[in-house]
Amino acid sequence: MLAATVRVTRDLDAAEEAVQDAYVQALKTWDRDGVPTRPGAWLTTVARRNALNAIRHRQVLQAKLPLLLGPTETAMAEPDAIPDDRLRLIFTCCHPALAQEARIALTLRLVCGVATPDIAQAFLVSEATMAARLTRAKKKIAAARIPYAVPSVEELPERVDTVLTVIHLLFATGHTAYSGQELVRDELTTRALDLARMLRLLLPADREVAGLLALLLAHHARRSTRTDPDGRLLRLAEQDRTAWDREMIAEADRLVVAALEAGSPGRFTLQAAIAALHAQAPAYEETDWPQIRTLYDELLRIWPSPVVALNRAVAVSMVDGPEAALAEVEALERDGRLAGYRYLPATKADLLHRLGRDAEAAEAYQAALALSDNATEQEFLAERARSAAAQGAVGGDEGGR
Amino acid sequence: MTQYAVLIYERVAPEDLPPEIMAAHEQLPQRISELGAREVAGLALLPPETATSIRGDLVTDGPFIETKEVLAGIFVVEARDLDQALAIAKMTPIVNGGVEVRPLLGFQVAEQS
């Protein structure tokens, strides 16, 4: 509804106002006359009429105010035009000219309808800060005239990538909350999954869209097993695989296979393939590590990020042993780009522990602990540090696994 | 139509610009109009060594920030929206540097008296 109304106003604030007024009118009218057969269409029609009236009103007041960007549409939206409108709204919110944090916040606010205080909470900033951030982004959309449109074919790959990145970040933010008490913020992961599903309906031919949806599904399928009943973090090896959502994993698998068969895979498809392999393994030891390492090699080639290199090192440790992986992790440490990234010392600690170098492992766990703001994660790392220190103290040289 | 300034930043001094870049600059207005947009004005700046800066009462002989990339020129276009302005900005011939696109608050040319 908001999307259809923005098409009239070309102004996000005005559209939100018109939609809110429509709800107020609905409460009054429906109470008196009963709920119409198509409440959604009724609301959309009223919201758009409100928007047009508001525009005319403003035009009379300030004839020269350049609020109207381009020609207005007076025709009512056809029901099947709405998905396209939502797609336009997503692309507007995820325009590369906006700061990344603003893209996520705007998508949550305008596409998912999440209230500003909730967004502020998810990003651990004050409501005023988030409101200011949203206002700034909306102002830029209006002032720089970011179009309310799906980009042209030439621009589409780059722009779809921005949208996919935002959805992935939304999911990641919810999957392992940056800080706070809870490990998972279900609302964010669910919203991200909804968006990925919607995008898949709107762009069915895009393989990376399929890849992202598969990636989210493969992770989401494991959500209930990531902590024990006491809320403690469980590692992949410790999770109860029988509790994973098999239907979701199967769906992810179908999407990955189709995307892989369609041609050379992009980064989301490769990540989805890795996640799907993890999800399919009947036991941690039976994971197809050589295949995962091959996928990481390809991922690193098309997306040379140090985080990918770190994750690849874990696969290397399972294929070639912890010694080989440790060398790669130490190289990444010297590289410096991951300074402050808690998973670097955490991975190093795990490798050191497997090599029986527990005193060093304890140190690395402490380093990871110092970088984490999430209570669940902190507790996990503190426990690992204590246990490694104890083993190190009794001369765990023959330790390892 | 909205007016945008395209700010050109270069690491190459104007006198060292290769001839093909100069030729591409000359063809730019034509290419912009082929997109249905219009170049309103163009300004080419002399190198930063010629600049004089004023901050408050202090007058000094150049930019304060030591930077290898300098503002080399500006042109103003009228475009449909930011995406069209970005498409135009991408056509700007650049040797070693980049461009920045900014919507204009106003654009005035003094009348000749």
Automatic annotation (TrEMBL), chain A:
<dbReference type="Pfam" id="PF20239">
    <property type="entry name" value="DUF6596"/>
</dbReference>
<dbReference type="InterPro" id="IPR046531">
    <property type="entry name" value="DUF6596"/>
</dbReference>
<dbReference type="GO" id="GO:0006352">
    <property type="term" value="P:DNA-templated transcription initiation"/>
</dbReference>
<feature type="domain" description="DUF6596">
    <location>
        <begin position="159"/>
        <end position="259"/>
    </location>
</feature>
<dbReference type="GO" id="GO:0016987">
    <property type="term" value="F:sigma factor activity"/>
</dbReference>
<dbReference type="InterPro" id="IPR013249">
    <property type="entry name" value="RNA_pol_sigma70_r4_t2"/>
</dbReference>
<keyword id="KW-0804">Transcription</keyword>
<dbReference type="InterPro" id="IPR007627">
    <property type="entry name" value="RNA_pol_sigma70_r2"/>
</dbReference>
<dbReference type="Pfam" id="PF04542">
    <property type="entry name" value="Sigma70_r2"/>
</dbReference>
<feature type="domain" description="RNA polymerase sigma-70 region 2">
    <location>
        <begin position="7"/>
        <end position="59"/>
    </location>
</feature>
<comment type="similarity">
    <text>Belongs to the sigma-70 factor family. ECF subfamily.</text>
</comment>
<keyword id="KW-0731">Sigma factor</keyword>
<dbReference type="InterPro" id="IPR011990">
    <property type="entry name" value="TPR-like_helical_dom_sf"/>
</dbReference>
<feature type="domain" description="RNA polymerase sigma factor 70 region 4 type 2">
    <location>
        <begin position="90"/>
        <end position="141"/>
    </location>
</feature>
<dbReference type="GO" id="GO:0003677">
    <property type="term" value="F:DNA binding"/>
</dbReference>
<protein>
    <submittedName>
        <fullName>RNA polymerase subunit sigma-24</fullName>
    </submittedName>
</protein>
<dbReference type="InterPro" id="IPR013325">
    <property type="entry name" value="RNA_pol_sigma_r2"/>
</dbReference>
<dbReference type="InterPro" id="IPR013324">
    <property type="entry name" value="RNA_pol_sigma_r3/r4-like"/>
</dbReference>
<keyword id="KW-0805">Transcription regulation</keyword>
<dbReference type="Pfam" id="PF08281">
    <property type="entry name" value="Sigma70_r4_2"/>
</dbReference>
UniProtKB/TrEMBL annotation, chain B:
<feature type="domain" description="YCII-related">
    <location>
        <begin position="3"/>
        <end position="107"/>
    </location>
</feature>
<comment type="similarity">
    <text>Belongs to the YciI family.</text>
</comment>
<dbReference type="InterPro" id="IPR005545">
    <property type="entry name" value="YCII"/>
</dbReference>
<dbReference type="InterPro" id="IPR011008">
    <property type="entry name" value="Dimeric_a/b-barrel"/>
</dbReference>
<dbReference type="Pfam" id="PF03795">
    <property type="entry name" value="YCII"/>
</dbReference>
<protein>
    <recommendedName>
        <fullName>YCII-related domain-containing protein</fullName>
    </recommendedName>
</protein>
